[in-house]
Design brief:
The chain is an all-beta fold. It contains no helices and 7 strands.
């Protein structure tokens, strides 16, 4: 006798990716403030974007931060002249998938 089995197809999430942008704001007495924005794409079914539980930022100067939102700011020490920093952000979904974005900036005081 033949046996039939009902199979429910499961949607495979699209790859998760992060684009990172940074904008230099006006220098403060302490240093130069930069604002960073992470834009997440994919990770969901079809064209949907996966929800993000947290963003972990590494500002390239030994400072890190974790936020629930996709935008943050950081002040770089202005005592140095034109220092290059590699800034990374890791976006983490509630189920533990991650994607990382990276940019290089030059911050500090300029003659």
């Amino acid at each position: 006798a033949a046996t039939s089995v009902n199979v429910t197809p499961q949607a495979i999430p699209t790859p998760l990716s992060v684009a990172l942008t940074g904008t230099a704001d006006t220098a403060t007495a302490v240093g130069q403030r930069w604002t960073f924005t992470a834009t997440v794409a994919g990770g969901g079914e079809g064209t949907t974007v996966a929800p993000i539980a947290s963003y972990t930022w590494d500002f390239g100067d030994g400072t890190q931060a974790t936020t629930s939102g996709n935008t943050t700011s950081h002040i770089y020490d202005q005592s140095a002249t034109g220092v290059r920093y590699a800034v990374t952000v890791t976006a983490r979904t509630p189920d533990g998938r991650t994607a990382q974005g990276r940019i290089e900036i030059i911050a500090g005081k300029f003659p």
